[in-house]
Each structure stands twice: as structure tokens, then as C-alpha cells.
Design goal:
By secondary structure, this protein is an alpha/beta fold. It contains 13 helices and 14 strands. It folds into two domains: about 240 residues, Type I PLP-dependent aspartate aminotransferase-like (Major domain) (Aspartate Aminotransferase, domain 2); about 120 residues, Aspartate Aminotransferase, domain 1 (Alpha-Beta Complex). The termini are far apart. Bound molecules: pyridoxal-5'-phosphate.
């Protein structure tokens, strides 16, 4: 067959960038199960169990907890377009790319958007939010918990209190957070939340877990206007995910298998153990990088364990190192975006990628490439520093 492209022969990479992360082998196996119908009794059982597991991972009792067909951005869009009607006001907190994207989505949905900003790598204080709430009276406040573009970890709980005191709904992006750090939908009183599968859940991209509180559902079910997106209309999706099982669109069956297995894996490990693993690998990586003169870019005390934004050492060529990692070691890490372009690397230790072997592999590969580039340090020093963290934990 001369005019056919070659068969797929994808390389085996180690994904240590800002997502996607490595897919767990059990999830790959789940994807390969035979496709069944989207109204098949077995599929309906899988959906029910999936919803139940999503509630456990989100730590919520919200009935309206499901997986949107689409990536994390579809979850973002679903949350915004269902809560916002044209002319509504929304306050969006922007300290990186994804807060900026949320503001764009809100504007397109017809919201009157007020943006508050803080420098890249930093997080918002409760006072920042309070001050903004005094001047604008928003219906919805949107904020990103784990800003994947900067590595900053935004605390949510206290902010939730002031948002609700001001009578607004709280919308939180946990695309990178879920499965990597604690997310408490009910305890923190979050009204709408969305995530993605390819960051800390060990799954390929393709579904967006979401959850809506009773308050959010009341707002959604009492809209004056139809949701602008037919595909993402929660009231219609509710009839498929609820007991009526009314056909809306064909669910991505095999992706549902994948997420089902991915959530089983997370819950089998246990959420707390999973968070502890992310934290330990982060500490080991950070200790190793420090010995190479590579420091963290996000605010001290607010560094995400699953996304390490680090300063590229002076005189080192960003692209050449990333190309060396990919070509010679099959390792992908991320470059910087926006204000961080050319200045930081983004090293993800997400989900199934967050493993000791990956931390040690990356440090030794980086040592080799940096040494060739003329960066001075004592060979092996970063591995020793990371090893110390692991040995201390083993005691
Ligand atoms: C990756 C990401 C998104 C977008 O998700 P996609 O799956 O790429 O559509 C949104 N918010 C945050 C914080 C992310 O890290």
C-alpha cells in the first residue's frame, strides 16, 4: 500500500511536563476493553460507580457530579456557561495562563468580567479577594487552585468564606490539583469545580470531572435564558447521568473505562497516601535541583508538589536542554509560558509520573546535559541530595 502512512509507532516517553502525564498501564489496558453501547446496562453501572468514585475523590456528596466529554477546558467552559447568563458579573482571579483563560471564557459567555491580577508565581490573599469584592458585586468568583503555568498553589478555604459572605458563588479550577493535593468540595463549600484526567489521575486527556453544589444547581435550574452551549448544558446532561438516562450525546465509552480504572487506582492507594507520594517526590526533586543551582519559581510556602516551575540557570539554553532530554532520554518537560517563557522549566510529577525512579532519571539526565553545557557542579550531587530525602523518609 504505497500511499498509506506508516503504522503507528509512538515512542515510549517519560512525561514529566505540565500534562499529559504518564498513563498508568492498568488504564491503558482498560482503554482496550471492547466498546459497548452507551445505554448498555453494564455501561450504566460503570457510570454510576464512576460518579460515586468521583464524589470520593472530590470529597463531596453533590448529586451533580459527573464527567464532561472533553478535556479540562471543556470542564471550565461547562462550569462558566451554566452559571453565567449574559450581563451577569464575574470576578476572575488571574495569576497565570489558566486564570486568563477562565476570564476569556466568561467574557465569551457574556459575563461582565472583572479581573484581579497578582504576579506570576504568587497567590492571592484573602484580603486581595475581600478588596475586590467590595468594589464589584459578582455573581460568581472564579479562581485556579493549582496554576500549572507558574507552579503556585492557591489556598481556597478562607477565600471561600469571604466569597460566600459577599453572596457570590465560588468556581474553582482543580485540573492539576485533583489527585495530587487535597481538594475538599464540601468542607470548603465550593459551588462549581472542574478537573481533567491527564494531570494527576494517570489517565489520557479526554474527560473533565465536574461537580456542582445544591446552590449552584438552584441557580442553573432557575436561569432566565438557555445555556449558550447545547453540548455542555448541565440540565440536559443531568437527564442522562441521572435516573432517566435520556440520550444526549454518545458518551466516550472507552475513556469512561479509563477514568473508572484511574479512579480505582487512586482510591486503592488512598488519597492521603497519594498526596504524600506527590509531596515526597517533589521534595526529593527540589533538593536535587537546588544542588545544581536551580531554584523554584513559585512563592515559598505555595509551591505545588506536582508542578515544579524552576528557574533556568543563567547561560543555559532552554530549548537545547529540553531537546536533549527528549531526543536522548525520552523525557518530556515543559518550557515556560507567558511571563515565564524562556525563563523557567515546568517539571511535572503528576499521577503515575510521580515516581522515585522518574525523579532520579531526570536528575541524572539533567546533570549530564548541564555538564556538557559547561554548568559547574560536582557530578552525582543532585542524586545524593534526592537520595537523602528518600532515605530519611524510609527511617
Ligand atoms: C491543563 C489545564 C487546563 C486545561 O485543560 P485541558 O485538558 O488542556 O483542556 C485548565 N486549567 C489548568 C489549571 C490546567 O492545568
Amino acid at each position: 500500500m504505497p500511499d498509506l502512512p506508516p503504522p503507528l509507532d509512538t515512542p515510549l516517553r517519560t512525561l514529566l511536563g505540565p500534562g499529559p502525564s504518564d498513563t498508568h498501564p492498568r488504564v491503558l489496558a482498560a482503554l482496550a476493553r471492547p466498546t459497548i453501547g452507551h445505554l448498555d446496562p453494564e455501561y450504566l453501572r460503570i457510570m454510576n460507580e464512576l460518579q460515586q468514585m468521583l464524589r470520593r475523590v472530590f470529597r463531596t456528596q453533590n448529586p451533580m457530579t459527573l464527567a464532561i466529554s472533553g478535556t479540562g477546558s471543556a470542564g471550565m467552559e461547562a462550569a462558566v456557561v451554566n452559571l453565567i447568563e449574559p450581563g451577569d458579573s464575574m470576578l476572575v482571579c488571574v495569576n497565570g495562563v489558566f486564570g486568563g483563560r477562565m476570564a476569556d471564557v466568561a467574557g465569551r459567555a457574556g459575563a461582565n468580567v472583572t479581573k484581579i491580577e497578582c504576579p506570576w508565581g504568587e497567590v492571592f490573599s484573602v484580603d486581595d479577594i475581600k478588596a475586590a469584592l467590595e468594589t464589584s458585586r459578582p455573581k460568581v468568583v472564579g479562581i485556579v487552585m493549582a496554576e500549572t503555568s507558574t507552579g503556585a498553589w492557591q489556598p481556597i478555604e478562607e477565600i471561600s468564606r469571604v466569597v460566600h459572605e459577599a453572596g457570590a458563588l465560588l468556581l474553582v479550577d482543580v485540573v492539576t490539583s485533583l489527585g495530587g493535593v487535597p481538594v475538599e468540595v464540601d468542607a470548603w463549600n465550593i459551588d462549581a469545580i472542574y478537573s481533567g484526567t491527564q494531570k494527576c489521575l494517570g489517565c489520557p486527556p479526554g474527560l473533565a470531572p465536574v461537580s456542582f453544589s445544591a446552590r449552584a444547581m438552584e441557580v442553573i435550574l432557575n436561569r432566565r435564558t438557555k445555556v449558550q452551549s447545547w453540548y455542555l448544558d448541565i440540565s440536559m446532561l443531568a437527564s442522562y447521568w441521572g435516573t432517566e438516562r435520556v440520550y444526549h450525546h454518545t458518551a466516550p465509552i472507552n475513556m469512561t473505562y479509563a477514568l473508572y480504572e484511574a479512579l480505582r487506582i487512586v482510591l486503592e492507594e488512598g488519597l492521603d497516601a497519594c498526596f504524600a507520594r506527590h509531596r515526597q517526590n517533589h521534595l526529593a526533586l527540589r533538593a536535587g535541583l537546588e544542588t545544581l543551582g536551580i531554584g523554584m519559581a513559585a512563592q515559598e510556602g505555595h509551591q505545588l508538589p506536582m508542578l515544579n516551575a524552576v528557574h533556568i540557570p543563567p547561560g543555559i539554553d532552554d530549548r537545547a536542554i529540553r531537546k536533549g532530554l527528549l531526543d536522548r532520554f525520552n523525557i518530556e518537560i515543559g518550557g515556560g509560558l507567558g511571563a515565564f517563557a524562556g525563563k523557567v522549566w515546568r517539571i511535572g510529577l503528576m499521577g503515575h509520573s510521580s515516581r522515585r525512579a522518574n525523579v532520579l532519571l531526570l536528575l541524572s539526565a539533567l546533570e549530564q546535559l548541564l555538564q556538557e553545557a559547561g554548568h559547574a557542579f560536582e557530578p552525582g550531587v543532585s542524586l545524593a541530595a534526592a537520595g537523602k530525602i528518600y532515605s530519611a523518609a524510609a527511617k
